[in-house]
Task: inverse folding
């Protein structure tokens, strides 16, 4: 049976939502899978909300635009309100704790709240919050191999930021720990 | 001056006939009697012949009376859409940087519909020659007002004379482009007297020689007449040109290369 | 399609716009002239960034009017050239395209379509089908129109575009949209220099003494001459129609309902076909890849066995007119679409298909 993962990543512009999606897509290619990355684009990217749909599949992907998702990675309240209902039944929802005032209400979902911004501040680099979220997601939904994710970082980050790769790797690992702890607590 | 065909021929004696340069075809000009286009074509193509650059030259024709310039000029040429000659020439020059590229445009083409293309080509310092024939009227379409039409001048669309208070002022394109840093050599010439023809030809020669240096755009305005559009006989039109056009469009260099 | 990718191709994750730009460099494009407009500015940005490192020229023009005329000049001088824009900018280029078609100059023009009319929106649309396929500028002329539906095809069609443009001395339009331009997918890039180029003998490169002048023109003042030029052009378009039609079919063998869609819409339809097939509905998809020439005949053939057609577009219904011409009243042809930059979802298409399937033997075309 072919396997496909459909993921929505959403937050404010500047939170690194689009590059988080790109890391996933690039890792998928390294894993020799098919992938599409479809961003929202336009003025909303400049400070407003930003989102991208990432699809990873064993076979050629038909529509890159979809309305129902297996998982959501959500970094702000408006995005949660927009996409909570778009997650498929029994799907997965990862949200950044400090940016969400009204938590998701659905009970069929596996929900993880990740204190990504707080943790990133502890790492003295607020910008890696997205990678903490990504790590948390990958711990629960290993849609691509960790090896490929680390390789993908090199492709997605511009060369002038390559010195930050170890920090990004750390952030991903920290995200995985946080998710693992939380799942253990819930189970 | 010694290579100047006109001078040579004058020196050779009175019964000498102008030789047609190989760079002109055998096709007879369709221009009205007394029109400056014929002379302008001739000095342009003579210069190309004398410089021996016919094989390396690509010309761009405009829309207007000289739309068929390529029927007369015996070199590779492109016919541009109205006003777009400078953009077309840019395209040619950018892919063939070692060729000589020129445009030949009238006032409607260059100074009305093609203002943007002209100004930006000069502003980029495209290494091309722009030959601008200014006769202050749309000749081909039957004598309508041009952007360069003088104040009070009667045309078929200014039947009571150009009233600048509601239809605007004559545009001095050459003065405009002379201010642009991309312009290397900007001059205003005429072809209504033998002396003016000699000077205009020298200006065109300078422009082609400068093009070799890749220093920027050369812009040669030729103030000309339009006997048909002005509704005058050729000699009256030349007189009118001298009395009315030249005071507003004075001849001479507006920008010359700084001496190294 | 992707199975055919040979080993020497380089695999990358790229935006459609970047893939198109990179492909143009690899296809040996000599020069690009363009003007910024969303959602395709990445093309100009990518090319200006690459220019110092590779062997081609880029110029940001003062307008789309200028860039298409620079294309005219450079193509006339024998170079392999491309410009790109989005809908409002392509409207400005219509004058130049008519001249280029008449003067028979090869070039590739990509339109990364956004919603219109007017200044419109920067979101994806297919509202420029008529403009691309039926003319757009003045006079009887045709562009060869290629409609990619993936990032891979955004790259591949640049190669096909140059090949066709040079083979037929005709402008080629790549009709794509903002979503395909902005989305990222895996793309396998052909190696650089894999497309041969010869400076054509008609190019204005400077006249040697041994030949007559080369003249690039679209002016043929005598009506008899103009008619002859037109007859020549029409003959050429006929040859193109005979040789270059491309389309793709998906589950059409036993389909009672045939979806027709181009570009991004065809991807949405493919998903709708999958969903409908899961629900037991016999539905298939015909996707024209070339919009001119259009696969009239294949659609006409499908009309024998199919019971109904549904055309899906991101516009008010443009290609559907060509589908109706092809079906020629044999079977009902329906349309569904979204306008102004909105993308129909596969589920919405499925709903329409289900509605048709429920009543498959009693469908009548009520629209229009």
Result:
């Amino acid at each position: 049976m072919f396997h496909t993962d459909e993921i929505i990543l959403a937050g404010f512009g500047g939170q690194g939502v689009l590059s988080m999606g790109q890391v996933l897509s690039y890792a998928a290619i390294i894993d020799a899978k098919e992938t599409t990355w479809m961003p929202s684009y336009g003025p909303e990217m400049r400070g407003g909300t930003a989102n991208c749909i990432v699809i990873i599949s064993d076979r050629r992907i038909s529509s890159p635009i979809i309305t129902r998702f297996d998982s959501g990675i959500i970094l702000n309240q408006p995005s949660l309100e927009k996409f909570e209902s778009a997650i498929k039944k029994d799907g997965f929802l990862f949200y950044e704790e400090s940016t969400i005032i009204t938590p998701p209400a659905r009970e069929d979902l596996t929900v993880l709240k990740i204190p990504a911004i707080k943790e990133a501040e502890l790492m003295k680099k607020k910008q890696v919050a997205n990678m903490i979220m990504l790590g948390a997601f990958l711990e629960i939904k290993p849609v691509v191999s960790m090896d490929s994710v680390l390789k993908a970082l090199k492709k997605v980050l511009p060369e002038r930021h390559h010195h930050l790769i170890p920090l990004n790797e750390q952030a991903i690992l920290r995200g995985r720990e946080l998710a693992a702890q939380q799942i253990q607590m819930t189970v | 001056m010694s290579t100047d065909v006109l001078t040579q021929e004058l020196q050779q004696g009175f019964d000498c006939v102008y030789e047609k340069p190989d760079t002109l075809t055998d096709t007879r000009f369709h221009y009205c009697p007394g029109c400056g286009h014929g002379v302008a074509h001739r000095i342009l193509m003579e210069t190309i012949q004398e410089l021996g650059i016919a094989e390396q030259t690509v010309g761009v024709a405009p829309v207007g009376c000289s739309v068929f310039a390529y029927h007369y000029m015996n070199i590779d040429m492109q016919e541009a859409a109205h006003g777009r000659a400078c953009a077309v020439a840019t395209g040619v020059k950018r892919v063939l940087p070692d060729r000589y590229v020129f445009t030949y445009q009238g006032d409607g083409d260059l100074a009305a519909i093609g203002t943007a293309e002209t100004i930006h080509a000069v502003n980029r310092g495209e290494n091309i020659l722009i030959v601008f024939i200014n006769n202050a009227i749309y000749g081909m379409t039957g004598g309508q007002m041009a952007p360069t039409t003088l104040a009070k001048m009667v045309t078929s669309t200014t039947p009571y004379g150009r009233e600048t208070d509601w239809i605007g002022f004559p545009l001095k394109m050459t003065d405009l482009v002379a201010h642009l840093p991309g312009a290397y050599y900007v001059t205003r010439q005429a072809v209504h007297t033998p002396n003016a023809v000699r000077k205009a030809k020298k200006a065109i020669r300078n422009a082609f020689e400068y093009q070799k240096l890749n220093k920027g755009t050369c812009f040669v305005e030729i103030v000309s007449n339009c006997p048909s559009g002005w509704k005058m006989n050729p000699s009256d039109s030349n007189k009118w040109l001298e009395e009315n056009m030249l005071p507003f469009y004075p001849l001479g260099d507006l920008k010359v290369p700084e001496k190294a | 399609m992707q199975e055919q990718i040979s080993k020497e191709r380089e695999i990358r994750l790229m935006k459609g716009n970047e893939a198109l730009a990179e492909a143009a460099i690899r296809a040996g494009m000599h020069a690009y002239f363009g003007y910024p407009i969303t959602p395709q500015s990445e093309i100009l940005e990518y090319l200006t960034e690459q220019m110092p490192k590779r062997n081609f020229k880029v110029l940001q023009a003062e307008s789309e009017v200028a860039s298409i005329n620079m294309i005219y000049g450079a193509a006339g001088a024998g170079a392999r050239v491309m410009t790109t824009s989005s809908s409002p900018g392509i409207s400005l280029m219509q004058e130049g395209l008519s001249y280029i078609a008449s003067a028979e100059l090869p070039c590739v023009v990509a339109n990364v379509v956004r919603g219109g009319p007017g200044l419109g929106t920067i979101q994806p649309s297919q509202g420029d089908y008529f403009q691309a396929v039926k003319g757009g500028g003045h006079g009887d002329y045709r562009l060869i129109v290629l409609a990619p539906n993936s990032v891979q095809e955004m790259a591949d069609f640049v190669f096909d575009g140059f090949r066709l443009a040079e083979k037929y001395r005709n402008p080629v339009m790549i009709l794509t949209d903002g979503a395909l331009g902005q989305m990222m997918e895996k793309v396998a890039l052909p190696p650089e220099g894999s497309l041969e180029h010869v400076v054509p003998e008609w190019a204005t490169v400077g006249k040697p003494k041994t030949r007559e002048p080369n003249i690039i023109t679209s002016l043929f003042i005598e009506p008899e001459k103009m008619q002859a030029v037109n007859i020549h052009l029409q003959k050429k378009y006929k040859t193109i129609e005979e040789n270059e039609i491309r389309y793709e079919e998906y589950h059409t063998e036993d389909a009672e309902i045939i979806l027709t869609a181009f570009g991004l819409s065809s991807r949405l339809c493919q998903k709708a076909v999958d969903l409908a097939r899961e629900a037991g509905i016999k539905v298939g998809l015909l996707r024209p890849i070339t919009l001119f020439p259009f696969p009239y005949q294949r659609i006409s053939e499908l009309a024998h066995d199919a019971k109904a057609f549904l055309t899906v577009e991101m516009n008010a219904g443009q290609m559907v007119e060509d589908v109706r011409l092809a079906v020629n009243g044999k079977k009902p042809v329906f349309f569904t679409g979204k306008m102004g930059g909105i993308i129909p979802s596969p589920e919405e298409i499925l709903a329409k298909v289900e509605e048709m399937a429920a009543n498959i033997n009693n469908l009548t075309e009520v629209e229009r």
The domain at 4-186 of chain A is CATH 3.40.920.10 (Pyruvate-ferredoxin Oxidoreductase; domain 3). Chain A has one domain: 4-186. The mean pLDDT of chain A is 93. Chain A is about 40% helix and 25% strand.
